[in-house]
Amino acid sequence: MLFRVFSRYELPRLFDIFSAAARVAGPVLLEQGAKGPIFGYRDIERFEELRLDHTITRMSAKSFFLPHKEELASFSIDGESWEKSNSLHVTSPVILMGVHPCDINALNKLDKVLLKSDYPMPHYAARRENTFIVGHDCMPEPGCFCRSMSTDTVQHGFDMFLTDLGDKYFAEILSNTGYNFLDGIVTEEPTEDDHRLFRDKAERRNSTFAPGVDTTDLNKILDMEFQSDVWQKWGERCFSCGACAAVCPTCYCYGVEESVGLDMKSATKTRRLHSCNLVDFARVAGGHNFRPEPHTRMKYRYYHKHRGFVEAYEEPLCVGCGRCGDSCLGGITVPEVIQSVRTEEFNARTQA
Ligand code: SF4
Ligand code: SF4
Fold first, then answer.
1. Close Cβ partners of 303 (under 8 Å, ≥ 6 residues apart)
2. Which residue, by CA, sits nearest to atom 8 of ligand 2?
3. Which of 45, 122, 178, 345 is deepest in the core (most CB within 10 A)?
């Protein structure tokens, strides 16, 4: 890894260099919500739109790589002949700016399943290859528990990572392309003072985290507590709306739909992200539903993320971003569920 520092006044120039090379996307202010500003990733035309001071975005960077809905193939029939068309939907390269450590770590987790497994997903792989990621440091928000999930810092999965040191940026560079981009602006070798500023920033950030949640031996505890009453109690609060999976940067379950045109001359195959909390997730042909009740589906979600994935990949499928808790109509948050399973006590903090 290479380190450089550059003045914050160089950032607009770097943005211009990015814009000349590719489509640029990053966090922008979407609207002022009741609880504060709401940010989201969008294409960016002008540097002034870019909000590197953003709080957690409503949807994560996952949407650039694994969209909610995507056509996989289309078919057309003409008399005796037929044609199939399938596209990876990859156009120009994308430079994605301002991605926080948790969201880069989420992509690294998705990579294990969608890129590096025996059956990689070509659409995801093509976009991952085609995207240059510029990470950015952040300050923890009340709902963040990334530190408990060991995803508060990131070591790989980006091309360049910027830490805001006040009047300058500290850049970590992981790719040749990143290094070449920085060649277009004035940068310097970091000095001992820059190293100290970097360490001070890390210490300030670490002291801002809320206590978090104890995940020690969580996969084993989940094994022990499969029949615990707390699942039933949390399930009673779940509306099975699927919002938690929709906003989650690590959820990747999907369904494939096939639809045939009324004229019987065309058809499409579409992938749509699914949620294990939706009532039909475990319904099979013949109508049997393996998880008919909300608590069985919710339990499955936690067992996949904090037990099954840990057994397969030695890490949980959760980065502690807190988005699911923020969007849950039932007020269900991951730290509270984990804590209640550990203690076998239904957490009363959000109890109605
Ligand atoms: S967002 Fe909350 S209420 Fe909706 S499915 Fe997820 S846990 Fe249940
Ligand atoms: S489960 Fe919740 S906290 Fe964990 S990564 Fe998904 S949205 Fe974030």
1. 222, 226
2. 321
3. 178
Ligand nearest to the CA of 328: 1
Is residue 337 within 8 A of residue 228, CB to CB? The reply is: no
- Is the distance from CB of 273 to CB of 68 less than 8 angstroms? yes
Cα 243 to ligand 1 centroid, rounded to whole Å: 6
Which conformational region is residue 222 in: left (phi greater than 0), alpha (psi within -120 to 50 degrees), or beta? alpha
Residue 316 three-state SS: coil
Ligand 2 center–CA 305 separation, angstroms: 9
Tens-digit pLDDT profile for residues 160-171:
999 999 999 999
Do the Cβ atoms of 244 and 277 come closer than 8 Å?
yes
Ligand 2, atom 6, lies closest to the CA of 248
**CA neighbours within 13 Å on the CB side: how many for 352?**
9
111, 176 in Cβ contact below 8 A? no
- Tell me what pLDDT residue 6 has: 98
Best residue among 328, 336, 337 to mutate for probing ligand 1, ranked by most atoms within 8 Å of CB = 328
Question: Looking at residue 347, what is its pLDDT?
Answer: 58
Q: Which residues of the chain have pLDDT under 50?
A: 348, 350-352
**Residue 351: per-residue pLDDT:** 46
Indicate whether residue 249 lines ligand 2 (CB < 6 A): yes
Question: What confidence score (pLDDT) does residue 90 get?
Answer: 78
Regarding the beta carbon of 241 and ligand 1, being less than 6 Å apart is answered: yes
Report which residue type is found at 310. Answer: V
Q: Who contacts 329 (Cβ-Cβ below 8 Å, separation ≥6)?
A: 239, 241, 243
The ligand whose atoms approach the alpha carbon of 275 most closely is 1
> CA 28, CA 303: separation in Å to the nearest integer?
34
Max Cα-Cα span within the chain: 74
Atom 1 of ligand 2, nearest CA residue:
318
Pairing of strands 168-173, 160-164: antiparallel
Compute CA 101 distance to the chain's CA centroid, rounded to the nearest angstrom: 10
